[in-house]
Amino acid sequence: DTGVSQNPRHKITKRGQNVTFRCDPISEHNRLYWYRQTLGQGPEFLTYFQNEAQLEKSRLLSDRFSAERPKGSFSTLEIQRTEQGDSAMYLCASSPRQGNSPLHFGNGTRLTVT
Amino acid sequence: GENVEQHPSTLSVQEGDSAVIKCTYSDSASNYFPWYKQELGKRPQLIIDIRSNVGEKKDQRIAVTLNKTAKHFSLHITETQPEDSAVYFCAASVGSSNTGKLIFGQGTTLQVKP
Description:
By secondary structure, chain A is mostly beta strands. Chain A contains no helices and eleven strands. Chain A has strands spanning about 5, 10-15, 20-25, 30-35, 45-50, 55, 65-70, 75-80, 90-95, 105, 110-114. The radius of gyration of chain A is 13 Å and the shape is globular. Chain B is mostly beta strands. In chain B, about 0% of the residues lie in helices and about 55% in strands. Chain B has no helices and eleven strands. In chain B, strand 4 and strand 5 (about 45-50) form a beta hairpin.
């Protein structure tokens, strides 16, 4: 399966700790997106990259969140000083080309902050 | 800001009946409208999409209709089967810049009773 890969699948951390998640998109996809999904809600946009450039970041995103895509391939999402409200599923998606096209989602990283 | 409203939040039908899920969007520049199916614990997967230059699209038992004037679109599933049971999300592209960013509805939990 050459789909979008995310690691880890689950992360449990204590409040105040830092966490980092990784996303490997489909190899020929130059766009990469991070979304957050809480129980009973649709995915909420966090940020997106075109190649290595971060082109948009949600206004709702705290300064504790940072994302990188240094070589235009995999991406990392870091949350510093985690809070219980950060508990959610973090989904990564990629898409192949210019314009609007389907997003291909990974299985997500489920974060639980205790 | 951009918003997508989805109704109903839950839908229960008998196997073989039809199911209809409706969404409205706020951004008049939206031009791409995908629908995703998410089974419990799994990634959202694209089931059908429609672009603003068409009013209807069909793929076997699934169809989507779009009314750009009213800014609403609907998913129709005919001859429902138990394996159609899942959470369905509508989404709309944002703005006219074709970034690929999507805003999602809140989801509809569909239960198909055998």
